[in-house]
Specification:
Layout lengths: L3 H4 L15 H45 L6 H40 L6 H9 L11 H29 L4 H13 L2
């Protein structure tokens, strides 16, 4: 929940002077709730985008291993694994950003609820966080964050597998090329 001082900026007039039965508050509440739904829709679209990109990357790696020996093009396989890890990292950042945005919006929504007859969201979250449901409830965001993390682990395992093949066969050209590429790209 946001600090109370931050919530004072929510009201144009002192909260004490806002009539509890004001239709304007409810209309703004509905509009604000709709903006939360739009954020959720954008988050869903982002997830679909990153799932598609990861499916393409994993498919490319699988197809490439059928046509090209890993020993012949070590740089390509290491690069694909590394790029896959970075894509998942940015996916996780996006999830965290949307989570933060929604948390702030729900805090504001709960503050507006104080002027309405029912505190639906506040009550719902209190019940979900209670000791009776705490062990059974995991938010969608918590579940959602697991997917990019698991894919990062999978890409990392692929990366270590490819590197071990290179080292086993004494193929250092790809590794030195990779190190040269990354050392020059960050300057």
């Amino acid at each position: 929940m946001l600090a109370l001082d931050n919530m004072k900026a929510l009201w144009n007039i002192p909260a004490k002077e806002v009539p509890a039965n004001s239709g304007y508050i409810f209309e703004q509440y509905k509009l604000f709730h709709a903006s939360i739904e739009q954020i959720s829709d954008r988050r869903l679209s982002m997830n679909k985008f990153f799932i598609t990109i990861n499916t393409l990357f994993i498919s490319c790696i699988a197809v490439l291993t059928d046509f090209i020996e890993v020993i012949e093009q070590p740089f390509l396989f290491v690069l694909f694994s590394f790029i896959g890890m970075m894509i998942c990292y940015y996916w996780e950042l996006g999830i965290f950003s949307y989570q933060k945005m929604n948390n702030v919006k729900f805090d504001i929504l709960q503050e507006i609820e104080k002027k309405l007859p029912l505190n639906l969201y506040s009550c719902e979250w209190s019940l979900l966080k209670s000791t009776k449901t705490k062990n059974y409830f995991k938010s969608f965001t918590e579940l959602e964050k697991d997917i990019p993390f698991l894919l990062i682990v999978a890409y990392f395992l692929l990366l270590t597998h490819f590197l071990s093949i290179f080292l086993e066969h004494g193929t250092f050209d790809g590794i030195s090329t990779l190190l040269f590429f990354f050392s020059n790209s960050f300057h």
